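Let's do one together. I've listed all components of the complex below, 477 residues spread over three lines.
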Amino acid sequence: MKDIPMSIYTTLQRLNIELPSAAPPVGAYLMSAPSGALVYLSGHIAKKDGRPWAGKLGADMTTDTARLAARAVAIDLLATMHAHTGDLNRVRRIVKLSSLVNATPDFTEAHLVTNGASELLVEVFGEAGKHARCAFGVAQLPLGACVEIELIAEIASQP
Amino acid sequence: MKDIPMSIYTTLQRLNIELPSAAPPVGAYLMSAPSGALVYLSGHIAKKDGRPWAGKLGADMTTDTARLAARAVAIDLLATMHAHTGDLNRVRRIVKLSSLVNATPDFTEAHLVTNGASELLVEVFGEAGKHARCAFGVAQLPLGACVEIELIAEIASQP
Amino acid sequence: MKDIPMSIYTTLQRLNIELPSAAPPVGAYLMSAPSGALVYLSGHIAKKDGRPWAGKLGADMTTDTARLAARAVAIDLLATMHAHTGDLNRVRRIVKLSSLVNATPDFTEAHLVTNGASELLVEVFGEAGKHARCAFGVAQLPLGACVEIELIAEIASQP
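Okay, and this is what the predicted structure of the assembly comes out as:
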């Protein structure tokens, strides 16, 4: 007999995470596009109270705050995955994350900022949440956001 | 009876778009590489009259001009896809776009620049042209180009 | 009768390349994640003598030096692929490379830096090493590294 894994929604409840409604795109694109077993999620910018969470690392925002912003982005990515799949239990694994950190030319902690998102995904999905990733500092982001993260996930055809 | 969709080449004609010849790489790489049903297109830099279209957003180029540059990149991407597939009607969908905008640390409209490419792809492919994407400002691009865009598309084995 | 291709390990020996041990991640992620026939390798930062190879192009490092750094990253990527696959001869092709170059706002040779990695991959894998790629200048990288490269490869289920 196989162990029945805990529902992702139960895990979210235990973590006191309430999924927001999925954000609409701010341009001529989709928040998620499927191809084969994969779904590609568009770059999601950090938001606070529904508005762009602005800030530049190395200038006016600390690594700790941006780490919370990255965690918030990961929750928004979950909301988009929920909208895309209809059931987060169909997520077979988080494959890849690209994390863009709005940074000055001397801020060298993009990886620490990004851990806020990576750790949340592992808390939610366990082993299946462990992913490849890349993290780096960019000159600027849409609407001045402090972090933007895009994601590739593998989806099972059956839950 | 199924509707026969309009040929992509008829659509291009109606939009007065003439495909340029596919650009060669400027280094030890390919302009497109297939894997399974996907084709990965290399980052294409913006060109004007066949030469790099230089400029930095927030300094010496407006969002409107860069939007035209992004549209021009999308047309070059079509040329590469045409060269890769032999028939653009085999493109099943545009999956993902990454758009790098050469920008100062205070330029926050990378998404508006990128719309120039995203909208062209939807004009050409309709629903199948809608894609996930990410857009951000980078410190600098090869040859000083104002925009660089890479793309993933899904290709049908039969037209 | 089919030609038996030379083992990748023989090629590495001829190139005097000794694979280092695969680097561990510096955060809550994996250095490689599989999905279908693909493996996604995390962004690997340049290292020298096992420590981050710091530098900023356009300020304190030349294109030639950074090209060597990019070549070193490609060797580290090979080490990760070796650890992931157990046998580099299973690599069917290098599909895609993204190369992030730590650069000032006026450094326009990210493509030349990246050639250091691209050329090494072609030396090692021949035709199968030719890939799509994108290269650009970023504001800053984790730990001040001069280059960070991520990679997608296609892996055969049988060697």
